[in-house]
């Protein structure tokens, strides 16, 4: 998380700030990606949901009942003045003004994705019998639930939410485009089974990293499911970051190189090399600049 001229992140048992603010605090582990809002930093650890002062990491308040659901789970996210978080059993909403909460069971054995927007909230997770994707109103009411059979998923799935569009992608290449309000399937496609990185959804395009005979970024029209463009890249990548009208693609382990593609047609607009090995993703700081996290 980037804000207030600092980078805030969790690593193992620590919550860390680097930059204008520099501090670290030790916790019991399973720390999740933090969120900065209204001058407060929010994160989840084993002990619960923490509200911290960005300046020095001091604790302002906590909710012990909103503990981390485990390592590599999604961190809390914001919609309006509601902080939405996942626990091992529930999706929880916290009104940041009153601190009143609601809870709804998510029916997953392991939560992998959580997203919130003006049209609602969506969660996804692995179950004993495949996977489940669920949609909720902003007050926590469950609107719909979709099951994904075990034959269509390996170990992971990804969910992207933008406006009324949801795209659900499994690591075996099953792609479903759903309506955020009622879960209606708009279209379905079977992509390459070699999904190699986290996708992105923006401006009516769903962007996917896949590697079968070659590694490439694939763009699909969210409304119709048609392929918009494909751009080969020389090595696998772990994430895509959209910034304005370009897509930033860090190339994992290939001479620390990063490619910048046009969002409109996938053409290569720039390529550059960092001094240090790429080991994480990029984040937007002010809409034009990017920061690389190691």
Automatic annotation (TrEMBL):
It comes from the Archaea. Residues 4-105, 132-274 form the Pyrrolo-quinoline quinone repeat domain. InterPro entries: PQQ_rpt_dom, Quinoprotein_ADH-like_sf, WD40/YVTN_repeat-like_dom_sf. It holds the Pfam family PQQ_2. This is PQQ-binding-like beta-propeller repeat protein. It comes from Halogeometricum borinquense. The lineage of its organism: Archaea, Methanobacteriati, Methanobacteriota, Stenosarchaea group, Halobacteria.
